[in-house]
Specification:
The complex is a heterotetramer, with two copies of chain A (about 475 residues) and two copies of chain B (about 475 residues).
Chain A (H helix, E strand, L loop, with lengths): L7 H11 L29 H15 L3 E2 L12 H7 L2 H4 L11 H18 L3 E2 L6 H16 L4 E5 L4 H11 L5 E5 L10 H5 L8 E6 L9 H10 L3 E6 L20 E5 L15 E5 L12 E5 L5 E5 L6 H4 L12 H38 L4 E3 L8 E6 L3 H10 L2 E2 L2 E2 L10 E5 L6 H20 L12
Parallel strand pairs in A: 1-13, 3-4, 3-5, 5-6, 6-7
Antiparallel strand pairs in A: 2-8, 7-8, 9-10, 11-12, 12-15, 14-15
Helix pairs in contact in A: 3-11, 5-11, 6-7, 11-13
Chain B lengths: L2 H4 L37 H12 L22 H7 L2 H5 L10 H18 L3 E3 L5 H18 L7 E5 L5 H8 L3 E5 L9 H7 L4 E6 L12 H10 L3 E6 L11 H4 L3 E4 L19 E3 L11 E5 L2 E5 L18 H39 L3 E2 L10 E4 L1 H7 L3 H10 L6 E2 L8 E4 L7 H20 L1 H5 L12 H6 L10
Parallel strand pairs in B: 2-3, 2-4, 4-5, 5-6
Antiparallel strand pairs in B: 1-7, 6-7, 8-9, 10-11, 11-13, 12-13
Helix pairs in contact in B: 3-11, 5-11, 6-7, 11-14
The structure holds pyridoxal-5'-phosphate (2 copies).
Chain lengths: ~475, ~475, ~475, ~475
């Protein structure tokens, strides 16, 4: 029996001890009419070899592509050591560290992680993870409203990842919180103070500030932070942790710094893996720590005075506070945090900075080459980190498909969420997209665009809406 | 020793990053960081050794029996890990077109189909990232349903007092107030109390069956009728699905919506806290409200259904499609188990629990529900031991660590005093269970003969009993350099 | 500096402690004229990402083939758990267990391995591995000669893997040992007593008996063993460990059983990996254990009387006995033995037997389908385990190349080592080659052969020597 | 607990094998096994837990400082493991045609080229499976060379008394008798003794430089001249190549043939005993005798050269091409290090050794060769400690385990009494070295104050000091069931 160790003799002895004559008897409290028959849509079992072969075939079918998509998930090199250690059984198959004395490995890793994240963001404290960047933003909004006490309105610029805004909406609106959007500058692709003006005076719990924003553009975080604080609103920063190796940490934005910082942890050692598992991180000021959702690890001492680690401030959490908890989160993304901690330890400050700088440089190199073509232009004029918006003279969808045919994922199609930008795509070149890849992209893009220039597919297709 | 304490200035690990730092002068100074973050500066060997040694300080399924009730700590097959980590699967971007992910999507689609069958539901969305997010999803769907009918007066969610903390917390997050329903003497929901509680304010009931008390709710059909009659809907907390896999389907019990914890029933790893996956299934009533995306299979192709084709969806709960890598592990596990294997999971997890309950009772421990069948888990109460010796459940839990066993869940559910919720799972052998029972018996004896031995436990772990009170009072949540 | 943790400050302090002013000074005892310049043929370093990409590309280039080659290395399913545990740092990065108290993990694994191998072969004792099957045969020949004391001539049938015979020759001939070959039966592909007759009377140290032999054929091991013992020669069995789950163990061959058993351990959990690392195993009778080469682990007790494991009988080995050692072997194939032990533990007796039976059944199924075609015939009429020789009506090389074009490795070409068999190939279908693969092979073989029947490439090619 | 002791009859692990047993009636009964072998019958979890826990009982580089002299226990980069285990590389059959292995062969070819450069040799064969097989290869080539010239009277191999045991053992395997050359007071070969020993019987000299005494043989050029003049050839034991990587080439020192231990210098794992890889390099004189196969690159294609194109080859030493997976790891390592990294290996392994030697000397330990530079390793002799306290080198070694350090190599080379051969390697940090030096100092103090503490060591390992004598006398080499 797969994964079941019982022998006939064991079963017999166990049934005897229980005092029943069959395993079936143990289910006799289930009303007979509820019992189901065979699971007809679950196929019969395969052995490990058969499943291995199936999965190898499916993986082969999906293949490898040279990827220039970012849009919230980034392809970085992950040192081999990261997952070789992370998947050690002791990390992989442990539960949440409820029994601290039997979980010092996990707990210390989390404490180290909290230290690293707090420092990276310039904040006082960090929690031990949330589900992902998007839901972390939702939790930050809830936390801001709890912290603020008076206001229930939160400003979210449209330069925040559109799905993050959707997710936040799905999660917070049941609690009578109002999310207000802020339009972006057509020229810079960033949030300008003018656009916030209309909200002055109203009771605001928080302003969300992305850095870099969804377009890759750098926001004027100091001004925005000061504006929010001037209007008695908290600042929720949404940041990319790799970018933080280069960019000013939210703790230092404006005069007082951000109040809550969240983001997607994926760039720190999580493989792209079709979308997950990743992890969300959250940091805040010491003063607000009791409003934080999620697990937090603290250092303490044991009975003999030696240092040790334990889950702390559990009175915020659902298993203690139940309906009054700061969040319902229980299982988080612990293993990814283990990976991230090892990832950061292996890269160190210098390594992470080099990664960030190389992402930036590769993206600029890509932009230079692509915009040298006719039919490809930058949409915004502000500095970017490692992503940028390009407008194409042909339908974005067609161009991306043509590139896909050449083994290249050319970028994220913005037409669904930002139709006002025209045929626009968001491109990203991380440190893993060096000259060779950029040249390949450029070569094929040039061919595709010039073919379309010379020989547009057909009259109807010229219509950008098609 | 913390990694920061072996860090040294100017040390850098150059194999892991670009060999040189590229120019960044296009980023104006005002956006730039002035001081480097406090990340460790260690060599690859130092990092590897540090984290390898740390790992050895954990108890885990791979090293210890881990009968943590409500958590289903069963074997996590290594094949699931390996096959979810094939390079092509790891390398695929979530926004890569569906055409480049037919292999991956096929797995997701088949997983949806299997979960539908197992739960008896009409449709499944894989997107929730853990059990609690699955709960949120379910209750948000209930709310969306009532709202869609203009039935906006329903403001209460009913929750049994034995429920897991995520249930009431979820209700709150969905904007509901919580009304607790007491448990009867034999562990079932008190039907009369339930009847008294339901009414026009009732949005729904959250229930897990078997319950967190380790018994099957016998009056489930009647409960469902009572709630439905009052216009409420039933939410099934699938954390205990392991107990009934292939034996009875929540859909048949009358539930309208359900989440599953794949990190429990489908054996994906707990990873020291996560990640999990909390897919949600719904019957036809609630299906339109399922969160997106959902995989569909049409014309020989797999593709995502989004809010565009599912306009009533409660929306999205995460940036992408869910914890894909966890779902892949669950998929592999399901294929390895197959149809018959699913049933066997229920059978042998139940056999193990009933065996342990019987043996512990013989050894003198008090079962919380001695007249009931155990499901895949059961409760003992150590109140008598405490009264006699002063040794509390927490002491016994810590002493178990010394004997090489992870402790069961303690002090949950809250209504049983000094309780141990014990879940052996189907993947443990009788000898292991016997060893645990012996250890419990020894500890009970120690509690009488040398209570200090037990109260002072653990003695053999990397640290001795930790001071939780101090941890919460003198907050130390991050390391800071001395100077 | 890759893999070097020194900081500038450390280097300075260390040089001071040594009392030199530069690292270069530490090399001052090397005569200056010997010092070399830059290593011009070693390329500059790459970072891990660059090497990863290079290796992924090279692996992609090599691709996947459906493999029907055996000939000494067999494609079996290896449970995922095997290498996930084997590559744990504690096994992977430990040395030979010289400090027993700090190596109980490795030592106990080896003791368990010895137990498994002794039981699988039906012998008294096993060592902790030799390099591979071929060199293990060479060591067995040396051991037999040492044990026999009088004779230095050893009979090796030509049904033994031809490369094993070459390797044995390379290794033993420097010690004045004579290897005599024995021809095989044209009909059965096995070694017949008649062929041994000519050696009766001469002083023989040992007879080597392969089971199954290189052709996949089962030898009459009982008769051969008895013949050898009758003529005062030791019996060296060369066996496939997977086959042993089905076949009589050498310890039970004939009246007295084999004296030394060796073989290639690869089928027990080692990936094909272009030829290695694999491991050789060796078992023998208790009486001969002091002549055994290689490490041996024994169970003993510690200072408090608890059981523990340690390397034992080290007086046989080079580090103690130096020029009088049983062999010069030092580093062996320990990690592969760890994998094999876990592999056998996961399969168990039932699992290993099912694997063996399925290999046999798949091979018979393949043979049936292939020999149903005209132009493909069995060469030998004896029962086989999981390999067999087929004679083709077209040049083996051309047929194999045509199959390769279809993604199939159709078998091992025997024409180099056994030209007397004509255009013959050795085919193998392990448990991993199920119906689907066999059908694919059959389909393409049918096409290739019929094309060649209808339309032979050209007149010259009809000459089988071409 | 042995795996056999958790085994139970009738238990079987069905995910790992075909789901049913196929028919085998075509195999006549007389060939068949009658009784099943004694393999464990355990579940996947039981096996996994057993071996995971066993692994934790090992010291290893990944967990401990492991300064085992002559063994070069440096960091084994995880990238090497991962990249050597890509599915396509693992799946390739050794007899698959070269056309299906161009990626793999390219790595092998480039590795050969790098090793040629590093050793200063004309050609390299990757095929030997470990150091000792490399030695065999080298000496067999020397013999083949003499034989090819009809020079068959040479029957002796010269070996310094400090040599590793494999050197004399190898000479014997190649049919030579061994003549030992004593070491001079300062650790160099005694030149006068060498001169007296060489002659018409001399087939060759086996030498490692730096020697196993941890010093560089200063008169190597003269030694080479003396041996060559007598018609002998020089074999270089490359176990200590780490010390001189990129600094000096054995070919330039006058050696004719060399083996390398890739599991030392090129950081492939030792795996608790192996596998290793012992490629051999030869100058133009010996090149024709190299073992096959060797990779060549012609017309844009990589292919194997075999005995057919290399008719003077000493032949084959293993069934296939060598320890391919080990060679791939070494290749990845070499690419990560690069040209400059190679030199740095020599520099920092040497710095570490000299630093430790200096600090231990200051702490009162006796260096065997106090007036010499240490190479990448060095020797201390604990004779004085023994004389003063009765504590022997073995006791100190065991006590180091208690303090979390693997012991250095003890009692080798044989000519230094109570010796520790200490090799820190370049991948260890100064703090680790300082910790070890402190531990040694503490132990020396303990030896004086509480010698029983040291003699009774180890105290903290999974077992206490083991009875080796009993192990050899009451042989227990396999488990047998009780009944
Ligand atoms: C009964 C019950 N419900 C819900 C949950 C929450 O699931 P998760 O931890 O995946 O969020 C748990 C998990 O601990 C549980 O035991
Ligand atoms: C000096 C020396 N020569 C030769 C060898 C033998 O190498 P291997 O163990 O790879 O056979 C060793 C390894 O211990 C050694 O240290």
């Amino acid at each position: 029996m797969p994964f079941i160790p019982h022998t006939e003799a064991d079963i017999k002895a166990m049934l005897e001890a229980v005092g029943v004559d069959s395993i079936e008897t143990l289910f006799d409290e289930i009303p007979a009419e509820l019992r189901c028959g065979e699971l007809t849509n679950v196929p019969p079992r395969m052995n490990e070899f058969e499943v291995t072969r199936l999965m190898l075939e499916r993986a082969e079918q999906d293949g490898y592509y040279i990827n220039f998509i970012g849009a919230g998930a980034y392809e970085h090199h992950i040192p081999a050591a990261v997952w070789e250690i992370t998947t050690r059984g002791e990390f992989y198959s442990a539960y949440t560290p409820y029994q601290a004395e039997a979980s010092q490995g996990t707990l210390q890793v989390l404490y180290e992680f909290q230290t690293m994240m707090a420092s990276l963001t310039g904040m006082d404290v960090a929690n031990a993870s949330l589900y992902d960047g998007a839901s972390a933003l939702a939790e930050a909004v809830l936390m801001a409203v709890r912290t603020h006490r008076k206001a229930r309105r939160v400003l979210i610029p449209t330069t925040v990842h559109p799905v993050y805004r959707q997710v936040t909406h799905s999660i917070v609106t049941n609690q009578d919180i109002e999310l207000l959007s802020v339009p972006f500058s057509k020229q810079g692709g960033h949030t300008v103070l003018d656009a916030l003006k209309s909200h002055e005076g109203g009771d605001l719990a928080a302003l969300v500030i992305p850095q870099p924003n969804f377009f890759g553009v750098l926001e004027d975080v100091d001004e925005l932070t000061n504006w929010a604080h001037r209007h008695n609103a908290l600042v929720i920063a949404v940041v990319n942790p790799v970018a933080l190796a280069l960019l000013a940490p939210p703790g230092e934005w404006g005069d007082a710094g951000a109040d809550i910082v969240v983001g997607e942890g994926q760039p720190l050692g999580a493989p792209l893996s079709s979308g997950g598992p990743y992890f969300g991180f959250m940091c805040c000021r010491q003063a607000h720590v009791r409003q934080m959702p999620g697990r937090i690890v603290g250092r303490t001492v044991d009975a003999t005075g030696n240092p040790g680690f334990t889950l702390t401030l559990q009175a915020r959490e659902q298993h203690i506070r139940r309906s009054k908890a700061t969040s319902n989160i229980c299982t988080n993304q612990g293993l990814l945090v283990t990976a991230a901690t090892i990832h950061m330890a292996l890269l160190g400050p210098e390594g992470l900075e080099r990664v960030a700088a190389q992402c930036h440089a590769n993206t600029l190199a890509l932009l230079e080459k692509l915009t040298a073509m006719s039919g490809v232009e930058r949409v915004f004029d502000r500095p970017v980190f490692h992503e940028a918006v390009l407008r194409l003279s042909s339908p974005a969808n067609d161009v991306l498909r043509a590139l896909e045919g050449q083994g290249i994922l050319g970028g994220y199609n913005l037409t669904q969420y930002y139709p006002e930008l025209g045929e626009a795509i968001l491109v990203c070149a991380t440190e893993t997209r060096g000259h060779e890849d950029i040249d390949k992209y450029t070569f094929h893009m040039e061919r595709i665009m010039s073919k379309r220039r010379l020989d547009p597919p057909c009259a109807v297709k010229a219509n950008p809406k098609d | 020793m913390l990694i920061f304490e072996i860090s040294k200035k100017d040390r850098c690990n150059p194999s892991q990053a670009p060999l040189e730092k590229a120019a960044v002068e296009k980023i104006p100074d005002r956006f730039r960081r002035k001081q480097r973050p406090l990340l460790p500066q260690v060599s690859e060997l130092q990092a590897l050794r540090h984290y390898t040694r740390l790992s050895q300080q954990n108890f885990s399924i791979d090293t210890h029996f881990y009968p943590l009730g409500s958590c289903t700590m069963k074997y996590n097959p290594r094949a699931c890990n390996r096959l979810a980590m094939l390079p092509q699967l790891l390398g695929r971007h979530p926004y890569a077109p569906e055409t480049t992910g037919q292999g991956f999507l096929a797995c997701m689609y088949e997983l949806q189909e299997m979960l539908k069958d197992i739960t008896g539901m009409a449709a499944v969305s894989l997107t929730p990232l853990a059990g609690a997010q699955g709960e949120f999803t379910g209750v948000a769907m209930i709310r969306a349903y009532h709202d869609s009918r203009g039935d906006t007066g329903r403001s209460e969610i009913l929750v049994p007092d034995a429920a897991h903390g995520t249930n009431p917390a979820t209700a709150t997050m969905c904007g509901y107030s919580v009304r607790e329903i007491p448990t009867g003497r034999e562990g079932d929901v008190d039907l009369e109390e339930l009847k008294a509680a339901v009414g026009p304010k009732t949005a729904g009931l959250m229930l897990t069956n078997p319950s967190t008390l380790g018994v099957f709710e016998r009056h489930i059909t009647e409960i469902a009728r009572v709630v439905h009659d009052a216009g409420g809907l039933l939410y099934y907390d699938g954390a205990n699905l392991n107990a009934i896999l292939g034996k009875v389907k929540p859909g048949d019990m009358g539930f309208d919506v359900i989440h599953m914890n794949l990190h429990k029933t489908f054996s994906t790893p707990h990873g020291g806290g996560g990640p999990g996956a909390g897919p949600v299934g719904a019957n036809e009533t609630l299906q339109p409200f399922l969160p997106v995306p959902v995989v569909t299979h049409e014309g020989g192709e797999y593709r995502w259904l989004t809010e565009i084709s599912l306009p009533h969806s409660i929306g999205r709960l995460s940036a992408f499609m869910g914890n894909a890598g966890v779902l892949l592990r669950a998929y592999v596990y399901a294929r390895l188990l197959g149809r018959d294997g699913m049933q066997r999971v229920a059978e042998f997890s139940t056999l193990n629990a009933n065996y342990m309950a019987a043996q512990l009772a013989k050894a003198g421990f008090q079962l919380a529900y001695p007249d009931r069948r155990a499901s895949h888990e059961f409760i003992i109460t150590l109140k008598q031991l405490k009264d006699e010796t002063g040794v509390i459940a927490m002491d016994v839990a810590k002493r178990l660590l010394d004997k090489g066993y992870h402790a069961p869940t303690t002090y949950f559910p809250l209504l049983v005093p000094e309780c141990f919720l014990i879940e052996p799972t189907e993947s443990e052998d009788k000898d292991v269970l016997d060893g645990f029972i012996d250890a419990m018996t020894e500890i009970a004896a120690e509690a009488k003969d040398s209570p200090e031995q037990v109260k002072g436990a653990p003695h053999t772990t990397p640290v001795r009993r930790l001071d939780d009170v101090r941890a919460a009072r003198q907050l130390d949540l991050r390391w800071r350099p001395r100077d």
